[in-house]
Amino acid sequence: MKSTRTERLIRMASRFLTLPSRQISLTEMSEQFEVSKTVISDDVTIIDKAFREEDLGTMSVGRGRSGGASFRPGFSGDFRSSFLASIAGILSSNDRILPGMLIHYSDILFNPGYARPLGYALASDFANREPDVVMTSEVKGIPLAIFTAHALGVPMAVCRFRNRPSDGPAVAVHYPSGSGEVRTMFMGTRFLSSGKRVLVIDDFMRGGSTAAGMLLVAKEFGAEVIGTGIFIAASEPARKAVSEYRALLRLERGADGVPIVKVQL
């Protein structure tokens, strides 16, 4: 498939963007584009420079005869700050305030234009911990988790609050809610296994009982939780059921008592 360098760069960049965190063989691309491996390596350097300048992420190149290159999404710097600030501004509008120190955010998470960069932001925060699977609970955490998993190049596992026959055999874990009620969470045995490194993703944390329930699920399977990422964490109560987590946004009570969303620093 002989082509001009401009066309080759576009084709290569599209492959890396379509399959983030997946290694693509430099040798195979060399054969497909009918150029030397050295030329392909130079192309990867050009793509890496462009991705860095656009704040999209970075390229990683494996060494050796069978080495390949992969694109690791990144969401940092001024672009990340301005994007999260814009989301915080949208969520802080008066028409989104709900009773009980809550806000309406479902339309944000179910909009790919917002959910994708939010997932990439969480992936950036935990990429160096190299998770094997992203875990979330139904329902609102799913869009956020699927884009996080996509950016990391790993599968996603969903904890359900009702066992579904289509999931096959499942493990049930009981955990206490913030109100003291005991709830049950189910995880299909085909989604998780012993020794897996798990990244827990949740859409909202007040007391942290749901995230804590997912930690119990991982423990039941013999998996290792390497981090917990949250879209919005409420400032009240200050003490959470999960001791360590990273949130993108923080929901707190303003000076007038009205809920306001801020970027978590």
Account of the 3D structure:
With 265 residues, the protein is an alpha/beta fold. The protein has two domains: 69 residues, Orthogonal Bundle (Arc Repressor Mutant, subunit A), CATH 1.10.10; 187 residues, Rossmann fold (3-Layer(aba) Sandwich), CATH 3.40.50.2020. The strands form four sheets. It has a six-stranded mixed β-sheet with strand order 7-6-10-11-12-13, with helices on both faces. α1 packs across α3 and α2 crosses α3. It is globular, with a radius of gyration of 21 Å.
Topology:
Elements: H1 5-18, E1 24-25, H2 26-33, H3 37-53, E2 57-61, E3 68-73, H4 77-91, E4 97-98, E5 102-103, H5 106-109, H6 112-126, E6 133-137, H7 141-152, E7 156-159, E8 170-176, E9 182-188, E10 197-205, H8 209-221, E11 224-234, E12 246-253, E13 259-263
Parallel strand pairs: 6-7, 6-10, 10-11, 11-12
Antiparallel strand pairs: 1-3, 2-3, 4-5, 8-9, 12-13
Helix pairs in contact: 1-3, 2-3, 6-7
In short:
The protein has helices at 5-18, 26-33, 37-53, 77-91, 106-109, 112-126, 141-152, 209-221; strands at 24-25, 57-61, 68-73, 97-98, 102-103, 133-137, 156-159, 170-176, 182-188, 197-205, 224-234, 246-253, 259-263.
Q: What is the overall number of helices?
A: 8
How many domains, as an integer? 2
Q: What structural class should be given to the helix and strand makeup?
A: alpha/beta
The level of helicity is 25-40%
**What integer value in Å does the Rg equal?**
21 Å
Stretches where pLDDT is under 50 for at least 5 consecutive residues are none
Order of helices and strands: HEHHEEHEEHHEHEEEEHEEE
**How many strands appear in the DSSP assignment?**
13
